[in-house]
Amino acid sequence: MTDTETEAGLERPAARRAGDEPPRPTGIGPLGWLRWAWRQLTTMRTALILLFLVALGAVPGSALPQRPQAPERVTKYLDDHHTLGPFFDRLSLFDVFSAPWFAAIYILLFVSLAGCVVPRAVHHFKAMRARPPAAPRNLARLPQTATYTTDATPDEVLDRARGVLRGRRFRTDADGSAVAAEKGYLGETGNLLFHVALLGMLFALGVGNLFGYKGNILLTEGKTFANGLNNYDQFSPGRRFDTSELAPFSLTLDDFRAKYEVKGDKRGQATDFTGKLRYRTSPSAPEKPYDLKLNHPLKVGGAKVYLLGHGYSPVFTVRDAKGQVAFQDSVPFLPLEPRNLTSEGVIKVPDAQPEQLAFYAILWPTAMASSDQKQIVSGFPAPLRPVITITAFKGDLGLDSGTPQSVYKLEGLGKTLNPIKGGVKLLEPGESFKLPDGAGTVTFDGLKEWTTLSVNRDPGRLPALIAAILAVAGLVASFTVRRRRVWVRASAGDDGRTVVEVGGLTLGNPTPEFDAVVTALRGAPEPAETQTKE
Fold first, then answer.
1. How far is CA 49 from the centre of its chain?
2. Mapping DSSP to helix (H, G, I), strand (E, B) and coil, where does residue 40 land?
3. DSSP 8-state symbol, 413
4. Contact, 388 vs 313, CB < 8 A?
5. Whole-angstrom Cα distance, residue 220 to residue 251?
6. How far is CA 275 from the centre of its chain?
7. Per-residue confidence of the chain (534 residues) as pLDDT tens digits?
8. What stretches of 42-184 show up as alpha helix (H) in DSSP?
9. Spatial contact of 279 and 390, defined as CB atoms under 8 Å apart
10. Is the peptide bond before 354 cis (omega within 30 degrees of 0)?
11. Where is the composition biased (Basic and acidic residues) (predicted)?
12. Positive or negative: CA dihedral 335, 341, 342, 347
């Protein structure tokens, strides 16, 4: 039999002919994939995963030095770790909060929460305006039920039920021979408020990072700081912050005081720091005093000024070989060990003639001999007996080369800057050291203290605080308030009395409120039998 020949009764059914077969499905298509991706993104599971990723992504920002805050530490890390350093740098781990991958996680989290919360809020709003659900056919199957009889008519029972339930803030609705009541929407409202507050916190953090700034300054007693970009030791502006918007305030540190434990195992531990400040909100404004303490920042110019740390700034007078004063000022020293504040610093004297001078010095605030009597140590952080050791150098400091230098480090040692033979000396306040070969004289005039201040302007701080308070309130409401439903049905019994059925349903465990509702409905105790199931 050929393809064109068919026998009677053997022809394929029309529905099974190859040419008439319906087209097979080819996939959900691009629009379907987009809908699927959106549904996955806006699930609570995805939001929790993204929240975890944000927290995980912030870990390198705490564990590794960050370029906006400490570029010199990043450079040192790269020099010390030739393999990991460049790899971390390619991943933007030295500037985590500006990294594209962190921004992507942050934006996805924001979109995920918004896509999850907004539809739930709309659904919740509709549910709050909807009528309570009608009474089930068999109230006895509910977790909480009660049945009793009364001489009141069914209408009187239902009227009483509406009054009792409304008095307990239930929303009620009459449905024939039954009254339906519902309350407890505050729990879901609190849940939504919590998630909306999370969105608010994310938004506030974004606003703070975009339009705020943070800067650090080191201020010695007697010095004044004017709020200008060039006067900061470190400055980290937000991406949208305009430095011309810096408020024109100024700060003067008159005195810094630190208190320490003097006895016991905690001897030398700081107990209190106080910076005596004078500040102006503008150049023409009057000066105002302020005692700056830890956790008690100064609010000025839309920013907050925090006290961070402290140290010592020895005061030196340096005369060159011609006897002229080439340097006279305080020099901040950095602590070598935080417990007793042994500190180091350098003094650069580019104006000395005929050769430039420099000094490396170590300060012991309370100098004493070590236990083996072979070296000097500091026995207490307060300046009870300050002693400084000076090492002198002469030559070219390299300041005219145009290459920036650290004020805490001498450059060109052994090349353009050489030690002066015999140029090492221990000095106490008021003592002078005449340098060998008539190179000059250095005098240790005394000791001042410095403090580091953090100036922080964060326009998102107040919105973030409000959002945090709302989040806590919403969380408390979501855990303490539960959805509750009560139905009351009244019908005529065989003996002419009215049979009242009451059913209750609570999201979670049953509450004692149901018993109180039944007691209020019954009024005076009835002789009839009551059946209650909880």
1. 19
2. helix
3. B
4. no
5. 11
6. 26
7. 444 444 444 454 544 454 555 565 556 778 888 888 888 888 878 888 988 898 898 888 888 888 766 676 788 888 888 888 889 889 888 888 778 898 899 889 888 888 888 888 888 888 888 889 899 989 989 999 999 999 899 999 999 999 999 999 999 998 788 999 999 888 889 989 998 998 888 889 888 888 899 899 999 999 999 999 999 988 888 878 888 889 999 999 999 999 999 888 888 888 889 999 999 999 999 999 999 998 899 999 999 999 988 999 999 999 999 999 999 999 999 999 888 999 999 999 999 999 999 999 999 999 999 888 889 999 999 999 999 999 999 999 988 777 778 888 898 888 889 999 999 999 999 999 999 989 999 999 999 999 999 999 999 888 999 999 999 999 999 888 888 999 999 999 888 899 999 999 988 778 888 999 999 998 744 334 344 443
8. 44-63, 71-80, 84-90, 100-129, 154-167
9. no
10. yes
11. 9-23
12. positive
Is the distance from CB of 500 to CB of 157 less than 8 angstroms? Answer: yes
Cβ partners under 8 Å of residue 175, min gap 6: 134, 135
Cβ atoms of residues 492 and 154 within 8 Å: yes
- β-sheet bridge partners, residue 484: 183, 506
Q: Which residues, in sequence order, are bridge partners of residue 212?
A: none
Residues 223 and 253: their CA atoms lie apart, in Å, by: 6
Residue reference for tokens 């011309």: 244
- C-alpha to C-alpha distance for 297 and 348, rounded to whole angstroms: 34
**How far apart (Å, rounded) are the C-alpha atoms in residues 108 and 486?**
42
Separation of alpha carbons 503 and 484, rounded Å: 11
Residue 432: closest CA among 447, 443, 446? 443
Angle between helices 513-522 and 154-167 (to 10 degrees): 140
Overall pTM > 0.90: no
- Structure tokens, 216: 């650090």
DSSP per-residue string spanning 380-407: -SS-SB-EEEEEEEEE---GGG-----T
The dihedrals phi and psi of 469, each to the nearest 5 degrees, come to: -65, -45
Residue tagged 């230098």 (tokens): 405
Going through 162-319 in order, the beta strands assigned E by DSSP cover: 171-175, 178-183, 213-220, 224-226, 234-237, 250-260, 270-280, 288-293, 298-300, 303-319
User: Parallel, antiparallel, or unpaired for β 303-319 and 325-330?
Assistant: antiparallel
CB distance 199 to 110 below 8 Å: yes
Contact 488, 161 (CB under 8 A): yes
Residues composing the chain: 534
For 518, the 3-state DSSP assignment is helix
* DSSP-based three-state secondary structure for 348: strand
Q: What angle do CA 396, 400, 406 make, to 5 degrees?
A: 80
Residue 290 buriedness (CB in 10 A; 0-12 / 13-18 / 19+)? middle
As a whole number of angstroms, the distance between CA 396 and CA 415 comes to: 9
